[in-house]
């Protein structure tokens, strides 16, 4: 009877590994999308704050999208961490930690950006400076994420 159970277990192991790899790949792709969205919306804030007259409503809307995508990014990092096998986690632990740190730094920057834009008369140049910092930090995070995917054998 034990031999039968072992055979059944081995029969299902490949499908379990494939399912884990598929879920991990999907979550990694969604994380890529979230990273790109953060960069893109921060770039739109940079554009808006580069104009001679600030369209505060539009800049605020893009800053809100930065925050929304950062929240998705943070949730996705937690989900991804749970999907790793021990070997995978060991392989990408430095990148995972770096991405988590990047999220924290980005949340602080996004909070500052929102606070600046919520003022009655936002300082256009200060808001631009913060948005540039968000974009630069996300660029670093994106590069780390690409390294992580490479180490996992994902495209």
Would you kindly provide a written description of the structure presented here, covering whatever features stand out?
The protein is mainly alpha-helical. The protein has a single domain, classed as Four Helix Bundle (Hemerythrin (Met), subunit A) (Up-down Bundle), CATH 1.20.120.660. Helices cover 89% and strands 0% of the residues. Helix 1 packs antiparallel against helix 4, helix 2 runs antiparallel to helix 3 and helix 3 runs antiparallel to helix 4. The radius of gyration is 20 Å and the shape is elongated.
List keywords for this structure.
155 residues; mainly alpha; 4 helices; 89% helix
Question: What's the architecture in CATH terms?
Answer: Up-down Bundle
Q: Could you spell the SSE succession in H and E letters?
A: HHHH
How large is the radius of gyration?
20 Å
Instruction: Give the strand tally.
Output: 0
Instruction: Work out the helicity level.
Output: over 70%
Q: Give me the number of helical elements.
A: 4
């Amino acid at each position: 009877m034990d031999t039968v159970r072992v055979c059944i277990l081995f029969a299902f192991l490949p499908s379990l590994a494939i399912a884990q790899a598929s879920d991990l790949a999907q979550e990694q792709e969604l994380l890529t999308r979230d990273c790109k969205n953060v960069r893109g919306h921060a770039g739109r804030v940079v554009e808006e704050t580069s104009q001679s007259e600030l369209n505060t409503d539009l800049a605020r809307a893009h800053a809100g999208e930065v925050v929304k995508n950062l929240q998705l990014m943070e949730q996705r990092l937690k989900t991804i961490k749970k999907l790793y096998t021990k070997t995978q986690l060991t392989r990408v632990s430095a990148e995972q930690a770096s991405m988590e740190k990047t999220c924290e730094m980005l949340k602080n920057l996004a909070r500052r950006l929102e606070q600046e834009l919520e003022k009655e008369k936002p300082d256009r140049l200060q808001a631009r400076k913060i948005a540039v910092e968000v974009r630069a930090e996300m660029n670093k995070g994106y590069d780390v994420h690409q390294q992580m995917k490479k180490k996992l054998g994902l495209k």
